[in-house]
Amino acid sequence: MINIGIIGLNEGNGHPISFSCIINGYDDVGLKKTGWDVIYNYIRIQDKADFGFENVKVTHIWTQDKIQSIQIAKAALILNVVDDYLDMLGEVDAVIIARDDYENHLLFARPFLDAGNFVFIDKPLSFKLEEIEYFKSFILNGKLMSCSGMRYAGELDAIRSNFQNLGKIKLIRGAVLNSMNKYGIHMIESIYSLNNTKALTVNAVDSSHESLIITNEDGSIVQIDSLGTTTKVFQLDFFGEKGRFHAELNNNFVAFRRTLYGFIQMIKTGKPVIEFDDTFEILRILIAYSISKKEKKIVQLNEIYV
Question: Which of 73, 76, 180, 206 has CB atoms 3.0–4.6 Å from 20's, for a disulfide?
Answer without folding.
Answer: 76
